[in-house]
Amino acid sequence: MDLIVEAVTQTPDPVVSITMRVREKGDRGVVQSVVLFLGVSVLSGALAAGLAIPFAGLAGFTTEKTSDTLQSLPQQFDEVPLKQKSTILAADGSVIATLAEQNRVPVKLSAVAPIMQKAIVAIEDDRFYEHGALDLKGTLRALLQNQSAGTVQQGGSSITQQYVKISLVEKAKTPQEVADATADSYQRKVAELRYAIAVEKQYSKNEILEKYLNLANFGDGAWGIQAAAQHYFSVNASQLTLPQAAMLAGLVKNPTGYDPTNNANRAKERRDVVIKRMLELHVISVAQANSALKTPVIDPNKVRSNKLGCGNGPYPFYCEYVVSELENNAAFGKTKTDRANYLKTAGLTIRTSLDPKIQADAQRSIDTHAKATDQAIAAITIVEPGTGLVKAMAQSRKYGSKRGQTAYNYNAPKTYAGGYGGFQNGSTMKAFTIAAAIQKGIPLTYKINSPSPLHLTGQTFSTCNGPYKIISPYDPQNSTKNVADPTMIQAAQKSTNTYFLQLSQRVGLCPIAKIASSLGMYNAQSLQPLQQVPSMTLGVDLVTPLQLAGAYAAFAARGMYCKPWVVTSVKDSAGKSVSIPGADCKQALSQEVADGVNAVLHQVMEPAGTGGKLKFGKSDLAGKTGTINEAKAVWYAGYSTRLAAAATVADASLPYRPLQGQTLNGHGINDPTGSGTAGPIWEAAMKAALQGYPTTHFVAPSDKIQRGDVKSLPFVNGMNPDDAANKLRQAGFDVTVASGTVNSEETAGTVAYTDPRQRDGAPDGSLVTIYVSNGSKKGQPNTPKPPQNTTKPPGGGTTINPNCPPWNPKYPNCGGRGHG
């Protein structure tokens, strides 16, 4: 151990002793260079610095050049804005990530331990408080020492000059500007001196020292004294001890070479040099020096990570989504590049909507049901109804480039950095058809004969751009069994494809598309509106869990759609709030229509529904399954009044293949379905996330919503089909004639019956299908009557009997409350 046993004897003035030795050697060139240096300094009106300028070059640097250089420089030094790290926080204040070019936390000099101030002055500029911009003694000492050694051994720059140099490098915006700011040229040295003189005029010594300590590089990604103290020792700058301060003071000379995390021995040697210099200057006592020299240079257990960026945080995908949102905000710069730079240098505090508890619940559910190395991927987003706040965003593959890792965010559209762009969402689209039907006045008990397969070739669907006629063969089927003539509720419970295809034909694709768009649904790949095609209600284009959770949250919020958002507040480095967009909410659906959707989707999670096994707790829940062609992706989206979530399991690797046989949670998928494959992920996440929330119920739909806005259909049985069609159109209905004939007691070629039936009535403007009789005396087939399925709507209120015709004074059996 290199201990100091007694006080160091004061040595003669180093400049004098070195000068005497030079004279003894008869080095006339050195003396001449020194004289010339002093002459130039006097003639220029300031002392031109030369930390490591070889003596031989000074003779060529004329007084005229010096004077011209000084005259061209400004009289004031514009202070460089400190590049400060920005911090992204979760809703509870915990750190999500640090964004920075330089990890820096500026502090006042009063917040820096006095021993740290003494250590940096002792080793870098011990006469700092005695000289002006240039320390003549220090400069001459460095010049002479370097000349004697033949190499650069010492620097002579004052702390003020060092501050100027670092500032000029910080101001540089291009590689060439950086090169100019660090060039080993006399012009650069003189420029630094002139700026240093300006700095000395503008600021006090303590102010200069404060600026220097906040600007200096302390190695290993730590810029400024506060960040360095926290990084290496897990303390604030105000708490630094002598050995800690000495180590940090020694770092500024060579932040990389003396980095204790890379080379503890070199760092200790350098630290000990600082301690001994402090002793020489009588800043510390022998006892203090000996104690400090015995102290280990660093405790590895107390080194804090300086890892920056979203990729090094606990929620990298969510974090990148946040950063993308901010980079799209014009308030942070004119261009995306300007905004990205601002976010990394402005010292912002960015608070987000992420709830660590709910995020953990979502990730735990994902990890329980899927593995990172699975062939299939799993993802889920949870959104708060009524605010649009994104509470959680989780997926099975981790962030990175190794096996089982990805840079794609499977929850986000292409508008965000790394956004995968979604998957086809299957029958979760039926919710928007239900909303459009209810909005049109179609009752929840509306029946449609729903065969499987359903022959739709030649049929026409209306769109916002006109009619769409199916030319190619199209014979969709049902994937589940249901009654022959299901109601809207029964069709939703069993996800009956042919019912919803016919319902969408009667409602029209334009109203469905408009509702979906108003609830944030669009193609997450192309960013274009969803296609209006006959299969729209069965899933169309590509959407994300984020979009779907946000849309279903609007149903939970009684029609109030809030665009999903993540950034709740931004404050600048001074703690002042920065103006950002807040909640973006609108009443996209009437409350009554949303209540009707909730009543229908609530029944999906009752025992008779495809989501019945996913029901939990006492709160009302609603949801919908989704499975696309060949089961390349399956979904479950659902909600309570407090939280809404959308979960998917999908193939995310080209070429896309059916999930059948692919691995999920390490096992092959035998029967991929929305309820059985994606549903358990949704259930586990939501069950955990809703713990602690009070029990809530949906508002029961009104009688008008339940029974629809219907009017009587004209009686047309037995009429010529063309005459019947005209009569129906005059009554305000759209009409189509079914191909082929049906068994009926009516005369062949006349109307056998209509769908909906004359006794049921229909909403104004809805589609009525005419079926033509073949004249058979066998009569109409005796379709088995579906079982009674009287259900109680969510939240109590009027019961719903799916088999009772809509209310109409002509049909008293369905009149009054308590009947459906």
Automatic annotation (TrEMBL):
Keywords: Carboxypeptidase, Cell shape, Cell wall biogenesis/degradation, Glycosyltransferase, Hydrolase, Membrane, Multifunctional enzyme, Peptidoglycan synthesis, Protease, Transferase, Transmembrane, Transmembrane helix. The chain crosses the membrane at residues 30-56. It catalyses: Preferential cleavage: (Ac)2-L-Lys-D-Ala-|-D-Ala. Also transpeptidation of peptidyl-alanyl moieties that are N-acyl substituents of D-alanine; [GlcNAc-(1->4)-Mur2Ac(oyl-L-Ala-gamma-D-Glu-L-Lys-D-Ala-D-Ala)](n)-di-trans,octa-cis-undecaprenyl diphosphate + beta-D-GlcNAc-(1->4)-Mur2Ac(oyl-L-Ala-gamma-D-Glu-L-Lys-D-Ala-D-Ala)-di-trans,octa-cis-undecaprenyl diphosphate = [GlcNAc-(1->4)-Mur2Ac(oyl-L-Ala-gamma-D-Glu-L-Lys-D-Ala-D-Ala)](n+1)-di-trans,octa-cis-undecaprenyl diphosphate + di-trans,octa-cis-undecaprenyl diphosphate + H(+). Coiled coil: none annotated. Pfam families: PASTA (PF03793), Transgly (PF00912), Transpeptidase (PF00905). Residues 707-774 form the PASTA domain. The keyword Signal does not apply. Residues 777-793 have a biased composition (Low complexity). Gene3D superfamilies: 3.30.10.20, Biosynthetic peptidoglycan transglycosylase-like (1.10.3810.10), DD-peptidase/beta-lactamase superfamily (3.40.710.10). GO terms for cellular component: outer membrane-bounded periplasmic space. GO terms for biological process: cell wall organization; peptidoglycan biosynthetic process; proteolysis; regulation of cell shape. GO terms for molecular function: penicillin binding; peptidoglycan glycosyltransferase activity; serine-type D-Ala-D-Ala carboxypeptidase activity. Residues 773-820 are annotated as: Disordered. The keyword Membrane applies. In the N-terminal section; belongs to the glycosyltransferase 51 family. PANTHER family: BINDING PROTEIN TRANSPEPTIDASE, PUTATIVE-RELATED, PEPTIDOGLYCAN GLYCOSYLTRANSFERASE. This is Membrane peptidoglycan carboxypeptidase. It comes from Kribbella kalugense.
